[in-house]
Each structure stands twice: as C-alpha cells, then as structure tokens.
Amino acid sequence: GAVGRPQKLDNYCASLEIKRRANYKQCEKLLA
C-alpha cells in the first residue's frame, strides 16, 4: 500500500480498482 495511507483504506481502494477503475480514481481523490 501507499505510505501514509491507512491499510484498510488502501485495501478498499485496491478492491475498487479490481471492480471498476473509475471508482478507484474517485477513491484516490478522496484520500489525496
């Protein structure tokens, strides 16, 4: 996972990336 990011959120974003990359991009923006 990325440094400085909670592991739970990192795993959540990874799951979104697998399902739908568009959702993953939104998740990255929220955590940025």
UniProtKB/TrEMBL annotation:
Tell me what this protein is called.
Transposase
